[in-house]
C-alpha cells in the first residue's frame, strides 16, 4: 500500500529541528514525530487550555494569559497516554501562524481568547488595519462598528492579504473593511500589536470604510 504523508504531520530535521510538510527547507525528509491526526488532537487541547478553559484543566493562568508550560504538558500527558513533552514542544515550534508565545517556562496564546485577560502588548503605531468579513456582515459593521463576537477582543489584520485569508474561512466572497487606526488612536482607542494580529476592545463605525 502506498505510504501517503498525512496533512499536518510533524517531522524533525537533524539540523533545523521540527517542521511540517514533505521535507525541511534544506531538503531533508526528516524523522517522523507526530501524525497529523494526533497533532490536531493536541492543537485543540492547547487552544482550549490557553484561550478558553484553563481552570477546567486545573491550570493557573495569570492576568496576562500566561500558564506554566510544565503544567500544561502534564495535563496533556494525562489526557493522551501517547503524548510526550517533546510532542508539545514540537507543536509550539511548528506553529506558523504565531498563535502562541513562549517565555522561559511560561506559554500563552497571543490572541483568540474568550477569557477576560489583560494583554500587555505594545500599542500598534501604524496608520491602517483591515478586517475581513462576508458581504452580509459588512453593511452591519459599517453601521454599528466592530465589536467582539465569541472572543474578548476584535482581531484586526495588518495587511489586506491576511484579512482576505481570515474572511475566506467563513465566506467565498470576502469584503475587506479598512480601519483608520491612526485616527482611532487619536481619540483614545487602544489598539495592541500582538504580532500576527492587532487587538482592540472595539472600533466605532466612524473609523471604518470598505477597503
TrEMBL record:
Function as written in the Swiss-Prot or TrEMBL entry: Removes the 2'-phosphate from RNA via an intermediate in which the phosphate is ADP-ribosylated by NAD followed by a presumed transesterification to release the RNA and generate ADP-ribose 1''-2''-cyclic phosphate (APPR>P). May function as an ADP-ribosylase.
Q: Per its UniProt record, what NCBIfam families does this chain match?
A: PRK00819.1-5 (NF002015)
User: Which keywords are on file for this protein?
Assistant: NAD, Transferase
EC category name: transferase
Q: Which organism is it from?
A: Methanocella arvoryzae (strain DSM 22066 / NBRC 105507 / MRE50)
Biological process (GO), any one? tRNA splicing, via endonucleolytic cleavage and ligation
Q: Could you identify this protein by its name?
A: Probable RNA 2'-phosphotransferase
User: Upper lineage ranks?
Assistant: Archaea, Methanobacteriati, Methanobacteriota, Stenosarchaea group, Methanomicrobia
Which superkingdom heads the taxonomic lineage of this protein's source? Archaea
